[in-house]
Amino acid sequence: MTLPIFRTKPVQPYDESEHSLKRCLSAWDLAFLGVGAIIGTGIFVLTGIAAATQAGPAVVLSFIIAGFACAFAALAYAELSAAVGGCGSAYGYSYAAFGELFAFIIGWDLLLEYGISVAAVANGWSGYFCNALSAIDLPIPVALTKAPELGGIINLPASLIVLLLMFLLILGVKQSAKANNAMVVVKLITISIFIAIACFNVHPENWHPFMPFGWFQTLPDGKTTGVFAGASLVFFAYVGFDAVSTAAEEAKDPQKDLPFGIITSLSFCTIIYILVAGLLTGVVHYSELNVSSPVAHALTLIGFNWASALISTGVIAGLTTVMLVLYYGLTRIIFAMSRDGLLSAFFSKVNPTTQTPVRVIVLCGFIISLVAGLMPLNELAKLVNIGTLAAFAMVCLGVIILRIKQPDMPRPFRSPFSPLFPVLGMVSCCALMAFLPALTWLRFVVWLVIGLIVYFTYSFHNSQLSKNHNS
Q: What tens-digit pLDDT sequence spans the chain (471 residues)?
């Protein structure tokens, strides 16, 4: 007899009802959602920081290693998103494969990943936005650009951009997708400008030594360096492709379009990352790149100030799309958990006009806006990585479990070489988790303990599976 905490959810589509979402996204909308989420903080910030402090020019290898880990996970996501469906992403897949308790833990984990990501990126967006205003002699008072811990009153731009995105998401997912597509085009143009200029200004001597920090080493102060440590850091650059899977119930043809959107966006962005990382460390010495805007800074150092200004514009657009897609993914996961009874039914109400979960969007908007405005989130970015890696590993395991438990389940897309690729995905994600600091692990465990308290005091008694069993 299966324990109640391990009861699994049957794989079946939801009926078109008041709790359903509007199907309006094409395959290319989904691919652009993925690109919108992936190309942002990673390429504009982490590339330089990882090169300067972790891997040197070998940061290219760090991106390749992190990209491989994501590729295995992406194939697993593609299989489960097409076969299991639902807007809950890894949460929904875990519910079908492992049972309710594990599904809740993964869902709780994803809430941390997406929520902290939006707030952290909002802080980065604020810095670029304030710099742009200062450049045209319209500076914002410093007290309104910093959190209280940093000597300010509130990071007002960070708070306001979250609220602006909240209203955009309330209007409807198709309108949000159109805005995302436009901003993705802008940042791709700016990246193309950098590539075009950098190709003709590479100095090969900047690539020597290629691997100044080695593969991995722990310094006396506890910090880690090397290619593998760089990979665990730049992994944040790939966070977001999984948000495509949260659009399952709003895709026109999810069984075909979701695998296309996930794999296309990840493949394209991986190539862009490797190309930009290689050129960036070839244009200037890696030691010059430990700045908040390494791409723009590199162009300034080689005398292309006009291009540097354009890159800054692309950064603002790029970070906006990252926030938009991650915010969207967060609301859909809460919506899915609420509909299953693991969170209050208050959150699963869909607005009849926009067919969006307005209550969830508004609640998340105000909470994230306050967090973004009042808290500096530098260290919490590492929490995003550990939460994402845990979810990716569970999705890879889910492919194996469901192949065993439900071998005849229709699978429009199948991860190749199973179970080899899913196992490689699990191993690579767990290995990258091992390179994260102990403090990050401690914070992660505390968050999970809070989640377990919520599950056993509310979710266990109110889940739809529990009600169906008792009825």
A: 456 777 777 655 444 444 455 666 777 788 877 877 777 767 777 778 788 888 888 888 988 888 888 888 888 887 887 777 665 667 877 887 788 888 898 889 888 888 888 888 888 788 778 777 776 778 788 888 777 776 778 888 889 999 999 988 887 766 767 777 777 788 788 888 888 888 888 888 888 888 888 887 776 666 667 888 888 777 777 777 777 776 766 777 776 777 788 888 888 888 888 898 889 888 888 888 877 677 877 888 888 877 777 777 778 877 888 888 888 888 888 988 888 889 888 888 887 777 778 889 999 999 999 988 887 655 556 667 787 788 888 888 888 888 888 888 777 778 888 889 899 989 888 888 887 777 778 888 898 999 999 999 998 888 887 776 665
Q: Which domain holds residue 118?
A: 25-460
For residue 410, give the CATH number of its domain.
1.20.1740.10
- Any domain includes 288: yes
Is 5 within the bounds of a domain?
A: no
**Rounded Cα distance, 95 and 8, in Å:** 6
Q: Are 265 and 34 in contact (CB under 8 A)?
A: yes
Is 7 part of a structural domain of the chain?
no
Number of structural domains in the chain: 1
Which DSSP string do the residues of 35-73 spell out, in sequence order?
A: HHHHSSHIIIIIHHHHIIIIIGGGHHHHHHHHHHHHHHH
> Residue 155: what are its φ and ψ, rounded to 5°?
-85, 85
Contact of 361 with 350, CB cutoff 8 Å: no
Handedness of CA 306, 308, 311, 313 (dihedral sign): negative
Task: State the SS3 of 369-381.
Answer: HHHHHHCCCCCHH
Q: For residue 9, tell me if it sits in a domain.
A: no
Angle at 393 between CA 344 and CA 410, to 5 degrees: 80
Instruction: State both tokens at 17.
Output: 């009802």
d(CA 48, CA 280): 8
